[in-house]
Each structure stands twice: as C-alpha cells, then as structure tokens.
Design brief:
It is a single chain. The chain is an alpha+beta fold and 717 residues long. The protein folds into four domains: 288 residues, 3-Layer(aba) Sandwich (Rossmann fold); 106 residues, Translation factors (Elongation Factor Tu (Ef-tu), domain 3, Beta Barrel), CATH 2.40.30; 69 residues, Elongation Factor G (Translational Gtpase), domain 3 (Alpha-Beta Plaits, 2-Layer Sandwich); 93 residues, Alpha-Beta Plaits, CATH 3.30.70. It is built from 20 helices and 33 strands. An eight-stranded antiparallel sheet has the order 18-17-23-14-15-22-19-20. A seven-stranded mixed sheet has the order 4-5-3-6-7-13-8, with helices on both faces. Strands 24, 25, 26, 27 and 28 form a five-stranded antiparallel sheet that branches. A hairpin with a 4-residue loop joins strand 10 and strand 11. The longest helix is centred in the middle third of the chain and has 21 residues. It is globular and about 95 Å long. The two termini are 44 Å apart. InterPro entries: EFG2, EFG_II, EFG_III, EFG_III/V, EFG_V, EFG_V-like, EFTu-like_2, G_TR_CS.
C-alpha cells in the first residue's frame, strides 16, 4: 500500500555537527537523482518536505522545531465537505507539492489508497508534516463516512487542535455532529472553515447559524465573504479590517492582495466590517476577563483603537478554553481562503505545551508516547504512528510497551508524508512519528523507554494518587487513554479460493485487524467458516477489495447479515437462544452454589453455564435489532417517493427540515431494511439525494417481524 520511498537517511553517529548541513544537502541531491522516476502517479513534489525554492533549512529545524512552534491538527467534516481538497491546497501553498491535486482526478497526496482514488472519498486517515511561516504542522486528513468513524476517533485522541470543514450550502450535516461530539470528548480546541463559498446555494449566514443552533457553539466571525456562490471573490479580515482579493487570472490562488478597507472605495463593506468587529470585541470580552479589563479600561470610548494583536491573543485564549470557535470562509477548490486558514491554525490553535496532560508529571523528561495507528508495508513490515508526549525517540533504541508488557526495538524513524516518508535520526516531544520494526505494538498502546522507567512513573503516580485518595492501580494510571472500539453491526462469511490458501487469508486478516481495530474476525464453531464483522457495507467491501489487491487473494463473501441481539422478557429461576446472538440487558442472580472438595473451577464454570442456559430456555425470548439514525437530503421534487420508500422499510420519520432549497428527512430505520439503500435512493432521485447513517440503539422487534426473521434463519422460508 505504501511506496518503498526513502528520501534521505542520516546516521548521527557518523556525522559531526559542524558538517551536518553540507552532508544534508549532498544527500538530498544524490537521493533525488535516484528516486526521480519512482514518484507515484506522476505527482510533482517539491524536492523535499522543508525545502521551498532555494531555501534549504537546517537539519535541526526539520527534526526538532521548538515545541511552541508545533501544531498537531486534524481536518474533520461530513463526507464531501472538501477536507481532502483543503489539505491539497494547504500542501501546495506551503511548498510541499508543485501541482494541485484533485479528488475527482484521483491524484491527491493524502488519498493514496487505490480504493480512495476510485471512490473519491477518504477511507484511511493520512498524516502529513509540513512547515508554514516558521511553524511545524503535523496534519491529519480524516474520513467523513460513518463506516470509518474509528479512524477519526483514534486520530483526535493524539491531536491538539482541529479544523472543522463545512459545506457552506449545507451547514452542519449528520456526520458533522458525530465528529464534533468526538472532538468534545477529547476536549479538542477547533476552528471552523466554511468551504465551498462559490457553490450554488452557499450561504455564510445560514452556515454560521447552523453552527450556533445544532452544535451549540459560539461562532467568532473572524472573516466575512465578499460575495457568495458565483459572485464569491474573496474575504474580509474582520480583525484587521482588510479585504483579501484573489487574482482572477491566477490559476493556482497563490496571487492575492491584501488591502485596508477605506471609506472612499468600500463604504458599505467598511461599515459592515466595523459592525462585525465591534460585535466580535464584545463577544470576546464577555468570554475573557483579561481582554474585558483591557477594553473597558483603555478603549471603551472607541473599539476601533483596540490593537489587532491584543484581539488575536484574546481569541487564542478563548479558543484554547473551548468557549468559542473562530469561523473563517473560502473555497478550497477555487483556491481562495486557504492561506488565511493556515495563518489561523498557527495563530489560534494550541501548541503541545499549551495542552494540559496530567500524566506528564509522572514521566518527567522520560519517553512517553501513544501508538494510535498501524499500517502494513510489504517491504518494511508494520509501520506504527506515535504521538510523542515527552522525551525523545531515536532509531535502534529499545522501547517498552506497557499494555503488552514487552520490550521491542525501533529500527528506523520516519516523518510521515502521506505514502512517502522522510527518514530522520531523532524526534522530540510534541511531534508525530512513524516507526519501523515494532512487531507487537497495536493501536492504543502506551510506549515508554524501559520497564524501569514505567516502574518509576508508577511510583510517582502512586504517591500522587495517595494524596488525592484515588484507588486506581499503578498500571491503570500509567496507561494513556486508548481508543473505544465500537461494536460491529454487519457480518458475513469469507472463504479463500482453496483450502491451501487459508493460511494466507488468516495472515491477511491478522494484518488488516491490526491496522483497523473496528474489523473483527471470528471462527464459526458450527461450520468452521471465517466470519468478518464490520461497521457497514462499505467497510466490508473495502476490506474484501484490499485482500484482493494487497494480498493477491480472490476471496468469496457470503451474504451480508445484520448483527442482532437477544434479551428476555420475564424473570425466571433455573435461553436457549433464538439466533445464537449475544444476550444483553439480562441480570443473573446466583442463589446458592455447593462445591465439594476437589471440584475444579472448570467443572464449576460448566455447571453454571448449563444452569444459565436451562433458565434462559424457560424465559420468553426477544430479538433486538439495530436501529439506525437516518438523514436524507433531497430536493422537494423527490421528497414524496423517498418518504414512500422509507415507509416500506419500516422507517419512523421524526421531522422534515428545510435546508436552503432542499428537504432533510430525519428519522429511524432498522439496519436490516437499509442494505443496498444507496442504489435505490440514487434511482428514486436521479442521483440528486444523499444520506447518512449512524447506529442509534437496539430495539425489540415486533412479534410478526421476529417470527419472519426466525423462519428465514431456520430455512423455513
């Protein structure tokens, strides 16, 4: 999946510090000659991440930027809001690519998987490291499709800030709510980018209001659009009262001018901007006491005199406290508004040292890192992404995995650049690293320098816990919060082309499971078949396709099945299950247990198990089916056929909202009734409608539907 591209390597033990820069330049030159014909898919990359034009930065600045100058951010949004296109423009303007990639053309940097390029969607999160105006930015482009929510979850866990991208014509959408809740859970400060301001139906005010109403957030309007839809020309910087206009003759958006707003040339725009700036000052003053004292003390007579730098500093504090979210706008596809967005990332989102991580006090300056993603490369083996919270990582150094209680050795250390990687001799706290050589480390594992380091940290944590009267074990205190893995809702059997290929299939599935913890693989005890369990139709389809492309196996999938649950309706003393599904919402009370001397624990477990099964058989049984939250966005002309189709699918419509010229149908529908829905919806609406799904809960089936399901499963119908 990843190209075996090694841009440069430096062995710090063989190079004196006085000659690092010279050696660095010569290595780059010779390396580029070797790899010139191996850059994938014909993209034009700049000579090396960190080299812009003739400016060759020092090796030290590439490897170890000051922690205050580091930004670890993610880009998150509903599917098709423009996340990947925004990332492409960011890479281009920062000098890391020489041509603009396009999702529709399948040549973007971060969507490097074949499945992503074919479908035009992001499936795996991709990490990119670049510099912008003296800042090091580690950026992760995340998926927007509900089947890959875990990818967003495990990336947000290690980020310090996020950019939420919105389609300005749609505002807050279904998956926007999901990723926003995930960011809330991890207490991530964020800024909002209203993308697609050039799109027909784009409305700045509508999008801002949807952020306020649906996300319950307080938007800080740092920009205003100059025109909307086809009339969108640029943006107004509210903080500095300047207008930014992009040259219409420029193909790539690099050429734009920043001009102060003047009464002579822009009276209406100046008036609107002044009102917006005054409102912004009042809003920030209400949220930040320090800024309020400044404004009321020195500038109460005239808000125009409030320095832009003072206002920006206050906005930074408010953003870090997650009391409000700065809002910017633009059009990534039309190359407008991306450079100011990058400026806002460095200005308003936090550095690693501005985030409060309690566990750092236990490790002092020793290594503490979290493994948050694993990829498999055919040549290099497992590649493990790590967020370094303290200390330093070097190649050829041993590390201790607290979760696995094992020690491993890092063979190589890389900076991530989508599917290309730059080899480096060390990396310090605050950065995101890519390591080679770890065979047992998995997603969510806590990494330290040694077992003795872990024990020392445990003693410090123990003493701190005693002061606070906490009862957690030492191991629990040391483990960084991992990633919550959602339960799969779909499953199907998978078979190799022949019995001889079963070991190859097992190996492929083992590698894919380590990459994707939301993929579950189990063995059916009755049939002996391998069963895949996933988060949705697309999820399982992608896994099947990857097995074929990456491991060369033509596997066969059984029919897609829904993951049901079971429960009982009345208490009993002594279920045989209806479908063999897991039982939930059942409490078991043990009234008495007689154990004779010499009775083994295995026999006790077997006895209790048989007793429980006997009791369950006496109870009335109930099948629980997964119920999905459904949101369908459709034009008014096609609303009636969509509603009629949902009624046939046992859908329960909660409300129908108006979104610009569209209607948004919100309701619930059983998962079993929604398989293949994308094709049906496309046919009903001539391809104009979209929909989003999310697991809501499990609900009891009515007797008739349950009887039909049992008959079908038993082969009677």
């Amino acid at each position: 999946m990843l190209s075996n591209l090694r841009i440069f390597a430096v062995n710090p033990r063989k190079i004196s510090s006085l000659h690092i820069n010279n050696m660095y330049c010569s290595r780059i030159t010779s390396s580029l000659k070797r790899i010139k014909t191996h850059v994938p898919l014909g993209r034009n990359y700049s000579s090396l991440p960190g080299l812009i034009g003739n400016d060759i930065k020092s090796l030290h600045s590439i490897i170890s930027p000051p922690v205050a100058k580091i930004r670890n951010i993610g880009i998150m949004a509903h599917i098709d809001a423009g996340k990947t296109t925004t990332t492409e423009r960011i890479l281009y303007y920062s000098g890391y690519t020489r041509s603009l990639g396009d999702v529709d053309d399948g040549d973007t940097v971060t969507d490097f998987m074949a499945q992503e390029r074919e479908r035009g969607i992001t499936i795996q999160s991709a990490a990119v490291t670049f510099d912008w105006k003296g800042y090091r930015v580690n950026l992760i482009d995340t998926p927007g499709h509900v089947d890959f929510t875990l990818e967003v979850e495990r990336c947000l866990r290690v980020l310090d800030g996020a950019v939420a991208v919105f389609d300005a014509s749609a505002g807050v959408e279904a998956q926007t709510l999901t990723v926003w809740r995930q960011a809330d859970k991890h207490q991530i400060p964020r800024i909002c980018f209203l993308n697609k301001m050039d799109k027909t139906g784009a409305s700045f005010n509508y999008a801002v209001e949807s952020i306020r109403e649906k996300l319950k957030a307080k938007p800080l309007l740092l920009q205003l659009p100059i025109g909307e839809a086809k009339n969108f020309k640029g943006v107004v910087d509210v903080v500095r009262k300047e207008k930014l206009l992009w040259n219409s003759n420029s193909d790539d958006g690099k050429d734009f001018e920043r001009k102060p707003l003047l009464e002579m040339s822009d009276p209406e725009l100046l008036k609107e901007t002044t009102e917006a700036r005054n409102a912004l000052i009042e809003q920030v003053a209400d949220l930040d006491d320090e800024f309020a004292d400044l404004v009321l003390g020195e500038f109460s007579e005239n808000f125009d005199l409030v320095p832009a730098e003072k206002l920006q500093t206050a906005i930074h504090r408010v953003t870090l406290a997650r009391m409000a979210v700065p809002v910017l706008c633009g059009s990534a596809l039309k190359n407008k508004g991306v450079q100011p967005l990058l400026d806002a990332v460095t200005m308003y989102l936090p550095s690693p040292e501005e985030r409060n991580y309690e566990f750092l006090q236990w490790y002092k300056d020793d290594l503490c890192a979290l493994a948050f993603k694993v990829l498999h490369d055919k040549q290099r083996g497992p590649l493990v992404f790590m967020r370094i919270y303290s200390g330093m990582i070097k190649p050829q150094s041993a590390i201790h995995n607290i979760n696995g209680n094992c020690t491993e050795r890092i063979s190589r250390l890389l900076l991530p650049f989508a599917d290309q990687h730059v080899e480096i001799p060390s990396l310090t706290a605050g950065n995101i690293a890519l390591t080679v050589g770890l065979k047992h480390t998995a997603t969510g594992d806590t990494i330290v320098s040694s077992k003795s380091s872990a024990l020392a940290a445990a003693r410090r944590a123990g003493r701190e816990g005693e002061k606070k009267h906490e009862q957690n074990s030492e191991a629990e205190r040391l483990l960084l919060a991992g990633v919550e893995i959602p339960e799969p809702v779909f499953f199907c059997t998978i078979e190799p082309p022949s019995v001889a290929k079963q070991p190859d299939l097992d190996h492929a599935l083992k590698c894919l499971q380590r990459e994707d913890p939301s993929l579950k693989v189990k063995l059916d005890p009755d049939s002996g078949q391998t069963v895949l369990c996933g988060m949705g139709e697309l999820h399982i389809e992608i896994i099947h396709d990857r097995i074929k492309r990456e491991y060369g196996l033509e596997t066969y999938l059984g029919p897609l099945q829904v993951a049901y649950r079971e429960t009982i309706l009345n208490p009993v003393r002594a279920t045989g299950p209806l479908l063999g599904s897991p039982v939930q919402d059942v409490a078991i009370t043990l009234h008495s247990l007689i154990i004779h001397p010499g009775t083994s624990s295995t026999m006790i477990s077997a006895c209790v198990s048989r007793c429980i099964q006997k009791a369950l058989k006496k109870a009335d049984n109930q099948v629980l089916e997964p119920l999905m939250n459904l949101e369908v966005t459709v034009t008014r002309d096609y609303l009636s056929p969509v509603l009629a189709d949902l009624a046939q699918r046992r859908g329960n419509i909660q409300e129908i909202q108006t979104r610009q010229d569209n209607r948004v149908v919100i309701g619930f529908v059983p998962l079993a009734e929604i398989m293949g829905y994308s094709t049906v919806l496309r046919t009903l609406t001539s391809g104009s409608a979209t929909f989003a799904l999310e697991l809501s809960n499990y609900q009891a089936m009515n007797p008739q539907d349950q009887s039909t399901l049992l008959s079908r499963r038993s082969g009677l119908t």
